[in-house]
Amino acid sequence: MDRVLSGNRPTGKLHIGHLFGVLYNWRKLQDNYSCYYMVADWHALTTQWQDTSKIRDNIVDMVIDWLVVGIDPTRSVLFVQSEVKEHAELHMVFSMLVTLSRLLRNPTFKEYVAELRIKKETPRKSVLKTAVRNTVDVFIENVAKKLNSGEGKLDLDFMAYLRSELQKTFLENLKKTLEEEEEDLPYGSLVNYGFLGYPVLQAADILVYRAKYVPIGADQLPHLELTREIARRFNSLYGEVFPIPEPLIAEFPKVPGLDGRKMSKSYGNAIEISESPESIRQKVKRMYTDPLKVRKGDPGHPEECPVFMLHKLFNREEVDEIKESCIRGQLGCVECKRNLAEKMVKYLEPFREKRKEFEKDRSQVIDILKEGARKAALVTRETMEMVRDAMKIWK
Ligand code: SF4
């Protein structure tokens, strides 16, 4: 069977966006491919290197979600990236094959830097304010000194002195404040070498398994392109070692968060796969709905309502009926949400129950990951032998 590689950063418990967007697809792929599913803990370090205290717990919490939804360790290889050292070794080799300018063009890097630039604009305003405030203080002080010394007379000379003193003080303060701010520039302190190079590590993650396929969404195609470029470059320089990986594009249903935006932990709008029934009810109760439907009798627009989108996923049997009743103003949002919450509680119940089993003894998850790393290393060591042979380097 052809190999497939995919992975997740260890973010802890997963939410229903991951369930429909990633995990069901992974589960299906197990039928036709030899799947390698990786906990990308080194990738987590590129942006969370300051606080690593939760990474171990997050790994176990996340992998429990993989297991409860049917990612089967007897059919797929589940492992932690940092436990299979050849990822790092191949990353080092690949880092010689990529130019800096190619990495600087990476869309994710550009987006990240753009975000930092926006953050940088706010300090810019405060720089000017600080400079003006300091200027006024120093200026008043200097003028007071001049007057006290008896030198100041309100004639043209004195006015010229005031003008030049004000300009000089302002420019000096602006320069000083900008220099202080330069030291805190986000580029220098926030973008690290590892973050710039993470797509090279990603290429190593995929190619160290000589994976033929990578499951991705259509919007992630540019991310795979660099991996394909590196594989081609290596093969043309040293000989054919790597297959050129192909994307396995799947269409994922849109899973809205409580506020209607894309579901994401960082937005605080997520419902976890293992969320308790009471918490599901509370969260669904405060979900956004169609803002034009204020009372039960108002005709609604279900296709624009996040509650309806979740009905499509958790309550397929009643979707048509709900749509009709909403449009006709026969269904109220309170009742509609109550119905959804109960359907979600029921749907997620088997996952919740299975999680309890794993929670009783989390060491069984660690054993699964250790065994996965052992199996993964059988392939990665073989690949590195091939790489060393092809490159004619020491082995
Ligand atoms: S009745 Fe249901 S689908 Fe219609 S707007 Fe209200 S919550 Fe949304």
In short:
The chain is mainly alpha-helical.
Give the key terms.
about 400 residues; Rossmann fold; Tyrosyl-Transfer RNA Synthetase; 3 domains; three-stranded parallel sheet; two-stranded parallel ribbon; 16 helices; 5 strands; about 5% strand; binds iron/sulfur cluster
Describe what you observe in this structure.
This protein is mainly alpha-helical and about 400 residues long. It folds into three domains: about 5-105 and about 195-255 and about 360-390, 3-Layer(aba) Sandwich (Rossmann fold); about 115-190, no CATH class; about 265-360, Orthogonal Bundle (Tyrosyl-Transfer RNA Synthetase), CATH 1.10.240. Helices cover about 60% and strands about 5% of the residues. It has 16 helices and five strands. The protein has a three-stranded parallel sheet with strand order 1-2-3. The mean pLDDT is about 90. Iron/sulfur cluster binds near residues 302, 307, 308, 326 and 333. Iron/sulfur cluster binds next to helix 13 and helix 15.
Which helices and strands, and how do they pair?
Layout: E1 3-8, H1 16-29, E2 34-39, H2 41-48, H3 55-68, E3 77-80, H4 86-94, H5 100-104, H6 107-148, H7 156-182, H8 186-190, H9 193-196, H10 198-207, E4 213-216, H11 221-238, E5 246-249, H12 277-285, H13 306-314, H14 319-327, H15 333-360, H16 363-391
Parallel strand pairs: 1-2, 2-3, 4-5
Helix pairs in contact: 3-15, 4-10, 4-16, 6-7, 10-11, 12-15, 13-15
Bound molecules: iron/sulfur cluster (SF4).
